[in-house]
Inverse folding.
C-alpha cells in the first residue's frame, strides 16, 4: 500500500511537474522560434554568416571526413596527407598546415618542388581534404598518376581569416609567416628543392587574394601564382558602390578586416596589399599568372567580385603582362570552382618544375 500510495503521490506531483515542464517547453519553443526568425534575418542580411554556419555544421557527403579532421590520409598510390604545426615568430604562436607527400616520397632521397595553396574565409588547412569539396588531395594524386604534373609536395597553411596580410598593429603577421617562417620550416623539415623555380603559390577566394598579392610582392620567391575566384575589389572598401555597402557581405567583410586594414581603412596599407593596386606598378615580368572566376559566384552581385577580377585582367593587359584569365559561365565560388578547374591551374603552377 505504501508503494502504491507513494506512486500515487508521485503521480500527483508528476501532474504538476508536467504542467511546469509544458510551460517551460512552451517558453523555450517561443525563444527558439524567435531565434530561428532572427537567424533567418541575419542570414538574409549577412550571407557571409550563413556561409560560416554552413561550413561549421554541414555534414559532409557520406559523413566520412569533416573539416577539422587531423588524422593522416593514406592513398592507394602510396601518397599521403599529413597534418602538422610549428612555432612561427611572425604569428607569435603555432602555425598549422597540411602537406601532401607524393607516392615516392618515402622511398628514397629525392627532393621535390613545392606548391603552396591558401584557403578562403572560414576555412582552414583541412578543408581541401573533406568530402564536401570532393577530396581535392585525390585530384592531386590522379594528376601525378596521369603524368599531368610531376611529383610535388603541396602545402596548405592555416591562415584563419587574415587575408594572409600582416596585422596593422603587428600582433600577427600572416604574410611574413607564409613568405618567411613557413618556407623555412618546410625546407628544413622535408626534402624539397629550394629557389623560386621550384616553388609556386595558389589559392581560392580570400586565399586567391593572398596568393596573388604575395606573389606580386615577392616575385623572387615564386615562379607562378594561380587564384580561383580571388577576392578583388575595384577600390578600397570605403569607396565601394552603394550596392556592396548595403549588403551583408560588406559589413561582415569590414568587421573581419578591421585588424588588418583599419576602420576607416588605412589607404596606404590597403594599396600595399590589394592585388589590383600592386599590379598597376609592380614589376611582374617573368611571373606566371593565372586567375579565374564563375559568373554564378555568390559574391558577384553584392560585392562586385567579378568586376574586380576583370579589372585585374584589364590592368595586366594594359601593361602587356602575360597571364591566363578565365570567366566560366554559370560556375560557382571557392572550393567548388577549384574542384572544377584544379586540373588546369595545378599544371600551370608546376610548369617550371619540369
Amino acid at each position: 500500500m505504501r508503494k502504491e500510495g507513494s506512486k500515487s503521490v508521485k503521480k500527483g506531483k508528476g501532474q504538476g511537474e508536467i504542467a511546469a515542464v509544458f510551460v517551460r517547453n512552451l517558453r523555450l519553443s517561443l525563444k527558439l522560434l524567435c531565434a530561428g526568425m532572427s537567424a533567418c534575418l541575419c542570414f538574409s542580411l549577412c550571407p557571409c554568416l550563413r556561409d560560416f554556419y554552413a561550413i561549421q555544421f554541414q555534414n559532409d557527403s557520406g559523413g566520412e571526413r569533416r573539416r577539422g579532421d587531423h588524422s593522416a590520409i593514406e592513398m592507394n598510390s602510396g601518397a599521403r596527407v599529413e597534418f602538422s604545426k610549428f612555432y612561427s615568430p611572425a604569428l607569435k604562436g603555432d602555425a598549422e598546415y597540411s602537406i601532401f607527400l607524393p607516392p615516392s616520397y618515402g622511398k628514397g632521397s629525392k627532393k621535390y618542388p613545392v606548391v603552396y595553396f591558401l584557403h578562403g574565409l572560414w576555412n582552414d588547412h583541412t578543408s581541401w581534404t573533406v568530402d564536401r569539396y570532393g577530396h581535392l588531395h585525390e585530384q592531386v594524386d590522379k594528376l601525378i598518376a596521369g603524368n599531368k604534373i610531376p611529383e610535388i609536395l603541396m602545402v596548405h597553411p592555416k591562415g584563419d581569416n587574415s587575408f594572409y596580410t600582416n596585422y596593422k598593429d603587428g600582433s600577427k603577421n600572416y604574410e611574413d609567416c607564409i613568405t618567411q617562417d613557413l618556407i623555412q620550416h618546410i625546407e628544413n623539415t622535408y626534402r624539397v628543392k629550394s629557389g623560386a623555380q621550384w616553388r609556386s603559390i595558389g589559392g581560392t577566394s580570400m586565399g586567391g587574394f593572398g596568393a596573388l598579392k604575395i606573389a606580386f610582392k615577392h616575385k623572387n620567391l615564386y615562379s607562378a601564382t594561380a587564384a580561383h575566384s580571388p577576392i578583388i575589389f575595384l577600390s578600397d572598401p570605403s569607396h565601394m558602390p552603394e550596392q556592396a555597402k548595403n549588403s551583408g557581405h560588406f559589413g561582415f567583410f569590414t568587421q573581419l578586416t578591421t585588424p588588418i586594414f583599419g576602420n576607416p581603412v588605412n589607404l596606404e596599407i590597403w594599396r600595399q596589399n590589394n592585388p589590383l593596386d600592386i599590379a598597376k606598378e609592380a614589376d611582374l615580368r617573368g611571373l606566371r599568372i593565372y586567375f579565374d572566376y564563375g559568373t554564378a559566384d555568390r559574391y558577384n552581385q553584392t560585392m562586385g567580385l567579378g568586376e574586380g577580377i576583370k579589372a585585374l585582367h584589364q590592368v595586366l593587359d594594359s601593361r602587356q603582362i602575360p597571364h591566363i584569365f578565365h570567366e566560366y559561365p554559370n560556375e560557382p565560388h571557392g572550393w567548388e570552382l577549384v574542384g572544377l578547374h584544379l586540373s588546369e591551374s595545378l599544371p600551370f603552377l608546376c610548369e617550371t618544375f619540369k
Remarks:
- The two ends are 91 Å apart (CA to CA).
